Amino acid sequence: MQPTSSPSTAYISLGQIRPLGAALDAPAASGCSTAGDAGSSSCGSSAGPDDMPPEIWEKIKDHPCYSEEAHHHYARMHVAVAPACNIQCNYCNRKYDCSNESRPGVVSQKLTPEQAVKKVLAVASEIPQMTVLGIAGPGDALANPRKTFETFRLLQQKAPDIKLCVSTNGLALPEMVDEICRYNIDHVTITINMVDPEIGARIYPWIFWNHRRVTGIEAARILHEQQMKGLEMLSARGVLTKINSVLIPGINDAHLLEVNREVKKRGAFLHNIMPLISEAEHGTYFGLTGQRGPTAQELKAVQDACAGGANLMRHCRQCRADAVGLLGEDRSDEFTLDRIEALEVVYDLDRRREYQEKVEAERQAQVAARQAAVAKAAADDGMKVLVAVATKGGGRVNEHFGHVREFQIYEVTAIAAVFVGHRRVDQYCQGGYGEDGQLPSIVRAINDCHAVLVAKIGACPKDELEAAGIEPVDAYAHEFIERAALDWFAGYRERVARGDTGHRDRGDAAIRQGAFTSAAAA
Fold first, then answer.
1. CA 423 – CA 434 distance, rounded (Å)
2. Does the pTM of the predicted model rise above 0.85?
3. What is the DSSP letter of 293?
4. Least CB-packed of 323, 428, 454, 511 within 10 Å?
5. For residue 109, how many C-alpha atoms fall within 13 Å in the half-sphere facing its CB?
């Protein structure tokens, strides 16, 4: 596979959605910068608030959901205090006693506000880089206002340094904006899947509004109006908003460009376009009726098509409503009620600050490494490729291939390595041994990548990757990701210039072209 300089040839195009290069004409929203070309819009500066007001930088610099860079270093947690919901989504089936599924709306235990606060203090003491507490269900946080705001009130008293977040479908949002501001909740996520009620009627069978159940287009219209009104009110009050949209192929995939445009007009800070989770075993309407989710390539194509609109979040992991830890990991089973109720938790704010200073020093080392790599890079000639990275956090290439549960995907040019998404895979090593049957699915997950950077890799998976045209690279173990990717790419460009691209030219073009064609035609 030869490198290209055009997104229309390097990746799937969404010509059927809008012509490549067509600009979104919404006015710019303040707060985030756009780095690089299409598909590279991102939130947050690496070194500091050079591209945004200082007060905004203070809100996002250690928030793992609002800053892609921060998610390598800082943790978050959700507490499950909000079981009720005021709408029904065709992609949702809440479970309150489940430890085996990793998706929104699922929890192992529902908590009272008092239990939730004790759990937060226990987690914050054990994981001092945990900086953010969110209430995201398992129902809707604002459909359970008493439990939600009582949790925030108690937590403000006992852990004032922790940032507070709330997630909502937006139906009750306009009536709750004053309460949100009262508790200094600076970050609100609204799930907005449509701005056209006819499309919305295919996603939401009903809402509960003014003490009655409303269905069909009327329900979608009311929900849409409430979402837009709430978003505008939050923007006017200076609250940062992140919009979550579930990409549902054949229903709202093309429409999400209009969603992106409309939320940007209303001041949204970030737009997070997520893939539909629709396995039948989850019991959702879409899962039981055969509605498929998007491929990784289709998801990236829609995200890329939205470049120029609201800035995109690409590092979302679609967390459970009781998730704990770094994005991409879940340590909630370490903090079950039976374990924390026996604890005498002492919240040591000084220790937390001291630890976070060390985290920030590591983060600045990552920034310096990236800047040094860019400084010695050759001039950008338009060549770009995708690279998969095995990492378990800290912004480093520090995971063994056999232990990977997800790869982080970077788009690499001569002058930048930009995070563009992640790909979940089945773990190759099972019980200490490689499971060769897992290799084909892992290869398929990253078959549009030129290389995979790992801390270590065995002979069998190495051969399998090379046969598929993916270069396994273990020369950068424990190096910072961006520096490693840029250094590998510099060497790759030299090989291309010599005409020596090795195994990447042997038979992989058909594999990748087949993936692109099927995704683009879907």
1. 20
2. no
3. P
4. 511
5. 15
